[in-house]
């Protein structure tokens, strides 16, 4: 019992220490372990430092997800080399049960995703719900093992604050692409920089 | 056994609190093959709800205050804006005190989904799923499924018709249903774990609308019982919320799995 309390206390301290320098609206406040297609585990906050495009999908999805994947590739293609170098892309599966690292790896191959800036990952069902909640993604699993879900691409700055969202087929529009280009090229300062500049 | 341990844990966390027992009084519900108001999938009517435990009363201000004192990152002056909007616990006089505007035995409201979820996790429990909540809320004092009765509907609609702005009654003041559970209707709206699966707007968008590609997956999940206004109101309300939303009459209660 005592060791449990100590463990809880330590976990709490670590969370507080980590959270101290994050903006209030940063997604990196979520300590979600992501299991990637190559089988390694990376905590979501470890992605801090680069602007990020994030979307939820599942590998067996045959309707909107392939379009969203193609849109991500299309956005990436249209960035300047510097912006592209800065940007990371994260796809997290809604299908915690069936999307094993192996399934995610074959998804990568099928869609010719070979750039290491591009992470395809899974998380526990409870953590996916948390992630969907902060991204405003609504979803429901159907009995035929498909998912009904809103297709959303979200742009985070390097500190994890949401900078733009593109829903469904609108992700293809030029305004969103420009925003990604601007954030990824570092044209806009992050909230963290503004925090630092602010007198205390 | 696990539940007893969870109860003990809550009691240890809340030394001397008279709410300790109330915090963990739960009833067993189900298992049940249940016809929810929203079809679980196109062409499917029933959903299987495994046996689960549900709090007999919603979580109170006093209980939530204890939680906030033990987990100060959930105080209204410290919570990250990712997890709650600016009205979070705004009816309390201080970040760590209720004051005159909030009675200890009133249900806690103005809490986000994130905060509700964190409370239940700290209590060794979880939020109920929508289908669990809907199954429990289908009962009245004498029947497990009273939904076809006009008294059941009218009783709830009377509550909806009551003018807003009055102080909330204390928890447990409504009659218990057949499971011994109070206040599923007539007191507050309640968060559920999967409120994000209640895609009312998305369902309508899938009906040939040009915007349909905003949603992925098979077709419309339509209402099987269009006359069940009380439950459809709940679905509409919850589907309009974001996870960081708070509301003057939006609270929660916890659920738990039945120990194997």
Describe the protein in words.
The complex is a heterodimer of chains A (200) and B (260). Chain A is of the alpha+beta class. Chain A has a single domain (2-197), classed as Glutaredoxin (3-Layer(aba) Sandwich), CATH 3.40.30.10. Helices cover 38% and strands 21% of the residues of chain A. Chain A is built from seven helices and nine strands. In chain A, the strands form two sheets. Chain A has a seven-stranded mixed sheet with strand order 2-1-5-4-3-8-9, sandwiched between helices. Chain A has a two-stranded antiparallel sheet with strand order 6-7. The longest helix of chain A has 18 residues, at 2-19. The model of chain A is unreliable at 196-200 (pLDDT under 50). Chain B has 260 residues and is of the alpha+beta class. Chain B has one domain: paralog of FGE (formylglycine-generating enzyme). In chain B, 28% of the residues lie in helices and 9% in strands. Chain B is built from eight helices and eight strands. Chain B has helices spanning 2-13, 20-23, 61-70, 113-122, 130-137, 150-161, 200-205, 229-239; strands spanning 26-29, 32-34, 47-49, 52-55, 189-190, 215-216, 250-251, 255-257. Chain B has a three-stranded antiparallel sheet, with helices on one face. A two-stranded antiparallel ribbon of chain B has the order 2-3. The longest helix of chain B has 12 residues, at 2-13. Chain B is globular and about 50 Å long. The termini of chain B are close together. Residues 1-23 and 201-214 of chain B have low confidence and may be disordered. The A-B interface holds A 1, 12, 15-16, 19, 22, 24-27, 29-30, 61, 63-65, 67, 129-130, 132-134, 136-140, 142-144, 146-151, 167-170 and B 12, 40-42, 44, 71, 73, 80-83, 113-114, 193-194, 196-199, 202, 211, 213-218, 221, 239, 242-243.
How is this structure best summarized?
The complex is a heterodimer of chains A (200) and B (260). Chain A is an alpha+beta fold.
